[in-house]
Amino acid sequence: MKPILLTLLLATCSSLLATAQRPNIILIFADDQGYQDMSCFGHPKIKTPNMDRLAKEGRKFTDFYSVNPVCSASRAGLMTGCYPTRVGIQGVLFPNQTKGLNPKEITIAEILKKQGYATACIGKWHLGHLPKFLPTAQGFDSYFGIPYSNDMGYDPKMKIAKDIVLRDGVKLEDLAKATRRKPLAPLMRNTEVVEVPSDQRTLTKRYTEEAITFLRANKDGPFFLYFPHTMPHIPLFVTPEFKGKSAGGLYGDVIEEMDWSVGEILQTVKSLGIDESTLIVYTSDNGPWLSVGARGGSALPLRGGKFTTYEGGVREPTLMRWPGTIPAGTVCSEVASSIDLLPTFAILAGSEAPKDRVIDGRDIWPLISAQEGAKSPHEAFFYYKGNSLEAVRAGKWKYRSGPLDLKSKRKGTKKGREIALFDLESDKEESNNLIEKHPEIAERMKKLIADFDAERKANSRPAGGP
């Protein structure tokens, strides 16, 4: 048998074996966690022994990307397997908006639920706070969490639970005239508000307790737990047990409590005897909020952070663990993305990605399982900010035409924009513009941007709402 056919056969057999196992899936999704903000990714002060354990017992991904540098758009990409501009979510959704992820989209949860998975979303949703957009309308059996960012207000249109807990002097009559701008982040269970304002000091702890309850109730599997933390988005909150404990300040306290949460999940999975049948994925929605100083994280050694299409804005610290299936202590440096999780999870569950629409994500099981010779399924990866396609990566090369980092004083600017070509293998800091040395590569990649954006515009779908 020819080597290439043998390789394809082995890859197919491996995928079929994984599919036959139908793993439980736990997807932990941080909010604004920087690329460096784990011990195993190099942070000098923040200690994350449980996240490090995911790396030690699983696989670390050094070139794993979100698909947008802000909250709602990145989550739309994750849930649908598409660049978020394709599904009409370009930026951040606010409580005064009446749109959300279109219910006609097919989410990870909907695919897995059809395969018999119990599904739960615990944490920050941020894809629409009205009933028709909430997790329970998008494939999740249950929901518990804040429906958007923790610095946002309250929408009087939201449904109030009969046993609602009102805090900080808030009264029911206040909610009827509440401003959507004043921070009153509501805590919801399914479609009802159960607490206003939410006690954010206890969120990570309560989310974790809720997750453990779900795991115990569904230990016979299969299940899909989507666990999108509210933290470390600002404002930062932490339980008293973790306050002042980290050498990394309050931000470090928050990350270390999230690390505790990972430990609780690992311990529960182990105690339930489902360790070797459970895939755990840990990643983040976008890079750190650098402009808030010590309250934000670090993307070092990458350039930029949240709101930018530099590497620090969208390259995320990512870990995957499945004992006995994912080789322990390994590292993957191939390009992969959060949009790849939908088709990959679908295959693992015995299904497939939707065929009636364009899906941008690809099956990355060969990368996750460290199959010999596995390469990124993406000829090119595209960096959107809002509706603007600002950069593309193909192999080691990244071509960028976007707003200049205000802290930079570099050549290659044009009307406040930076036109640049970077070699990310040797220059992950994006500090050496090679466009003058390789104009032919820049032109080829510029064409990739134009062609893809034209295709995307021709095959886009609207967000849900008026």
Short descriptors:
17 strands; twelve-stranded mixed sheet; 2 domains; Arylsulfatase, C-terminal domain; Alkaline Phosphatase, subunit A; 11 helices; five-stranded antiparallel sheet; disordered N terminus; 27% helix; alpha/beta; 466 residues
End-to-end separation: 58 Å
CATH superfamily of the largest domain: Alkaline Phosphatase, subunit A
The proportion of residues forming helix, as a percent range, comes to: 25-40%
Number of helices: 11
User: pLDDT below 50 for ≥5 consecutive residues: which ranges?
Assistant: 1-19, 408-413
In what range is the share of β-strand residues? 15-25%
CATH topology of the largest domain: Alkaline Phosphatase, subunit A
Mean pLDDT: 93
Number of domain modules: 2
- Structural classification: alpha/beta
Structural shape: globular
Rg from Cα: 21 Å
Order of helices and strands: HEHEHHEEEHEEHEHEHEEEHHEEEEEH
Tally of strands: 17
Report the top-level CATH class of the largest domain. Alpha Beta
CATH architecture of the largest domain: 3-Layer(aba) Sandwich
The largest sheet, given as strand count, sense and whether it forms a barrel, is: 12 strands, mixed
Question: Which helices and strands appear, and what pairs or packs with what?
Answer:
Blueprint: H1 3-21, E1 24-30, H2 49-57, E2 59-65, H3 71-80, H4 108-114, E3 118-122, E4 142-145, E5 159-166, H5 172-176, E6 187-189, E7 192-196, H6 203-217, E8 223-228, H7 249-271, E9 278-284, H8 311-314, E10 315-321, E11 330-332, E12 336-337, H9 341-348, H10 365-368, E13 381-385, E14 388-394, E15 397-403, E16 413-414, E17 417-423, H11 439-458
Parallel strand pairs: 1-8, 1-9, 2-11, 2-12, 3-4, 3-8, 5-7
Antiparallel strand pairs: 2-10, 4-6, 6-7, 9-10, 13-14, 14-15, 15-17, 16-17
Helix pairs in contact: 6-7
